[in-house]
Design a protein that fits this description.
Two copies of one chain form a homodimer. The termini of chain A are far apart. With about 200 residues, chain A is mostly helical. The first copy, chain A, folds into two domains: about 55 residues, Homeodomain-like (Arc Repressor Mutant, subunit A), CATH 1.10.10; about 130 residues, Tetracycline Repressor, domain 2 (Orthogonal Bundle), CATH 1.10.357. Helices cover about 75% and strands about 0% of the residues of chain A. The radius of gyration of chain A is 19 Å and the shape is elongated. The interface between A and B is large, with 42 and 42 residues. Chain A binds a DNA duplex (18 and 18 nucleotides) through α1 and α3.
DNA sequence: GTCTATACTGCGATAGAC
DNA sequence: GTCTATCGCAGTATAGAC
C-alpha cells in the first residue's frame, strides 16, 4: 500500500518533470519546432520513459493544457468565493491574469499564444474554454444585476477583458517597457468606465 | 521587352496561385500541418515549379506575410488620406478590419492567429509590425491634439483597438452568432467613450 | 520554366534488454 | 519502469529530363 502510493508519487513526479520541460520548450519554440529528442535532452528523461507515461507527443500537449486550464479555473473560483461584487470580481480576474503573466510567463504564453487546435483536433477554441466562459458569466451576472450597462454580452466581455488580454500579449512579446502591474490601475479605470451602468 | 513583360506577368501569376493556395491551407490547417505536397495538390503547380519561384517553404510564408502587411498598410493610408479627425480615423480602421474579416477571413486568420515567429525567426512580433505601429501613432496623435485623454499610449491603444481585435478572433473561432458589422456600433460607442477627452 | 522521380534527413514511435 | 537502439515514414528539397 505504502509502496504503491510511493510509486504513484514517483509516477506523478516524472510526469511533472516532462510537462515542465514541455512547457518551457513549447512556449519558447512552439509545439511543432519541439521534438521528442528536445524534450528528452531538456528533461533528462529518456524516450522510452516518456512514452511509458504519455501516449504520444500530442498527449503531452493535452496534459499540459488540462493542467493549466484547471489552474486558471481554481484561480477564478477563489476570486468568486472571496468577492461578490461584479466590479471587484472583474478587477481581481484581470489582476490575477497580470500576476500570473509576470510570475509564470511560460504558462500564459502556452495558454494564450498557442493555436492548440492546430495539433489537438478536438480541443475547443480558447474562447469556449472554461476560464473564458467564466469571464463571460461574470459579465452576464453584472448585466443582470445592474452593475454593467445593458448591451450585447460578447461586446461587454470584450470591453472588460479584451484590452487586458491584448496587453498581456504585448508583454509576452516584450514590447512593453513598464511592468504590467504599473499599467493596471490606468487600464482598469478606463475599461470599467466603458461598461459600468 | 513585351515578351519579358509578359514573362514577368506570368511569373507573378504563378506566384499568386501558389500564395493563394498557401493562404487557404495555412489559415485552415496551419503552417506546420501544411506540406509542400498539400500545396502542389491544391494549387495544381508542381513541386519543381514551386521551388523555382520560392526559395523554400518558409519563403512562401514570408511572401504571404509581406503581401498582407502591405495590403493593410495601404488600407490604413487610404483612411489617413480621407479623414483628418482622430476619432473618425480610429473608427474607420476598426470598420475596415471588420470588413476585411468578413470579406477575406483567411487573410485575417493568417495575419492575426498565426505565430509567425515560430517559423520565420527574424520576423518582428505582430505588435511591432507596421500596421500595428500605425494604430499606435493614430492614438498618439489623438492624445497630442487633445481628442484622447492623456494616459499611457499603450493603454490607450489597447483600449481603442484591443477589444476589436479580440472580437475578430472570436468571429474567426466561429463563436459569434451575429455578423461583426451588427456589433460594430455598440462596440465602438463603448470603446470611444473609454478614451475620449 | 515546368515537370517527375528521388535522395536525404530527422522525427515519432516501438522493440526488447535490463 | 527505464533505458538504448532502431525502424519506418513523412516531408523538404534537389536532380535532371523535357
Amino acid at each position: 500500500m505504502i509502496a504503491s502510493s510511493a510509486m504513484s508519487v514517483r509516477r506523478l513526479q516524472i510526469r511533472e518533470i516532462v510537462l515542465n520541460s514541455a512547457l518551457y520548450l513549447f512556449s519558447q519554440k512552439g509545439y511543432f519546432s519541439t521534438s521528442i529528442p528536445d524534450i528528452v535532452c531538456h528533461s533528462g528523461v529518456s524516450t522510452g520513459s516518456i512514452y511509458h507515461h504519455f501516449a504520444d507527443k500530442q498527449d503531452i500537449a493535452r496534459a499540459l493544457y488540462d493542467r493549466h486550464v484547471t489552474q486558471m479555473e481554481v484561480m477564478f473560483d477563489d476570486i468568486e468565493q472571496q468577492h461578490g461584487q461584479v466590479e471587484v470580481r472583474c478587477r481581481e480576474i484581470i489582476l490575477a491574469l497580470f500576476e500570473l503573466t509576470e510570475k509564470e510567463p511560460m504558462v500564459m504564453a502556452y495558454m494564450l499564444r498557442t493555436r492548440h487546435q492546430e495539433f489537438m483536433p478536438d480541443v475547443a477554441p480558447v474562447c469556449s474554454s472554461r476560464p473564458f466562459q467564466h469571464m463571460r458569466d461574470v459579465v452576464l451576472k453584472g448585466m443582470n444585476e445592474g452593475e454593467i450597462r445593458q448591451m450585447d454580452v460578447m461586446v461587454a466581455t470584450v470591453c472588460v477583458f479584451g484590452g487586458a488580454l491584448e496587453f498581456i500579449q504585448f508583454h509576452l512579446d516584450g514590447i512593453l517597457e513598464k511592468p504590467l502591474s504599473e499599467c493596471f490601475d490606468e487600464l482598469w479605470r478606463h475599461v470599467w468606465a466603458s461598461v459600468k451602468a
